[in-house]
């Protein structure tokens, strides 16, 4: 009996010992998981977006003449989307849709005029404060959130320091980059871009107001009417407009628009492009290192490959496609450095990594006979065109080792807007229920739980004008696309609005189609041969179905102020950010930084 009792005691001690060992192992595993940021339910989120990169500019999307080994490797380690669609073919509306998961017309990030993006910086238009970005959702759920690079969603509303549209007002804890976009003025020696447009606008306004002042003064001299305080106001306004014209003539817009911010502080005005690429990489790497305990959301919004395609000496002249190719290869180097930082911190498996472009390549971008825009593969059209595939189909790559199958291709319609509900789901957040969210959660498609995209219809706008609609018939595999408006090209072979800055959305520069041009992209991805009732038996049925979807879509739209219409897009000097005394705005608080290339 005694021996049996001692045996039971020994067995009991062994069980307790094993239990403690198992508990210790679990605690160590939990500690290691937390230390390395391994949290499959709440992964780190790394979003990378190129600017103006064409669908066909990357090796993994068919380019064999530009070297992009880092992005190509990312695609090998993850999932590649071949039908990834931007909600707009221009920067500001496309990025607004990406940030909110909503068509830009819902937030008012559109226009009825040809002012279709935020330009210049000192305007009052921008992403409305009542919009909820994915950064704000994740911030509310414990994520450290950062934006490095380009914003282009506005800055101020009523004063130069209210920052109502600033990234920090839209859910980002940290911001380093440009609140505007790259323009030619940002590079010394380039022909001005914004200055020319504003000079033309304000010189015309000056002429009109001067004529009104002259008329009022003439009325006073002849005794037809008396001169009141309004005349003084007119004269003052005329003087202000001439002041604007004069300063734009002397290229002050480089100082006013090409600015680097760190949070709310201007650190460089004007920016020094020779350091910008390196600084963006260093800031992204630093954010990852500071927040490696996780979870974090980092949105790296590259300035590459937007014109003027400034490329540092290390990459200049190294590609087979001139300055543009050099810029793409430098972009790939930047991506590689950021991914290396993720790997170095042991965060690769616990990070949902995404790469894309905001829209297609800029076909009209030229310097003399040299092409400065990208290649959109086989697809027709490009940046600034509402519906043609080349302007809205972009590269899309997702990597999440262990959670999505490597080296996979998904040939289903997906959208940049889908990132919004996807990262919200990963963070354990719910998307807002008080507004329409147009994006779809990609997780089931990425993990193979479903075979088809949730998107049935997609709507392709140019400003506020609906140019085209696509309809994905999952059962048959047909991918119909109806064009109701298309831009006019100089010739059938041109494929772009050469001689213009961008193709127009309406008016005499477009053709209206009634009935619409209909294509089946599954058979004709080049959109080369429009179908007719004679060539396609389903033509009438398809068009009717698309038009019913258009009517339903329009019923979901709520009128909101268009942020790029005239009032919001007029440059207002009192909104201009300035680190000196306006108009003499210049400073360099980054001179002490080490600008050595990483």
Mean pLDDT: 88
Q: Which CATH class of the largest domain is shown? A: Alpha Beta
Overall shape: globular
Mind telling me which CATH architecture of the largest domain this is? Answer: 3-Layer(aba) Sandwich
* Number of helical elements: 15
Number of strands: 18
Largest sheet: 12 strands, mixed
Radius of gyration: 27 Å
Number of domains: 2
Low-confidence segments, given as residue ranges, are: 21-39, 594-598
Secondary structure: helix percent: 25-40%
Structural class: alpha/beta
Structure description:
This protein is of the alpha/beta class. The chain folds into 2 domains: 42-192 and 251-455 and 563-588, 3-Layer(aba) Sandwich (Alkaline Phosphatase, subunit A), CATH 3.40.720; 194-249. It is built from 15 helices and 18 strands. Strands 1, 2, 3, 4, 5, 6, 7, 8, 11, 12, 13 and 18 form a 12-stranded mixed β-sheet that branches. Strands 14-15-16-17 form a 4-stranded antiparallel β-sheet, with helices on one face. Helix 6 (194-222) packs antiparallel against helix 7 and helix 9 runs parallel beside helix 10. It starts with a helix and ends in a 10-residue tail after the last strand. Mean pLDDT is 88; it is low at 21-39 and 594-598.
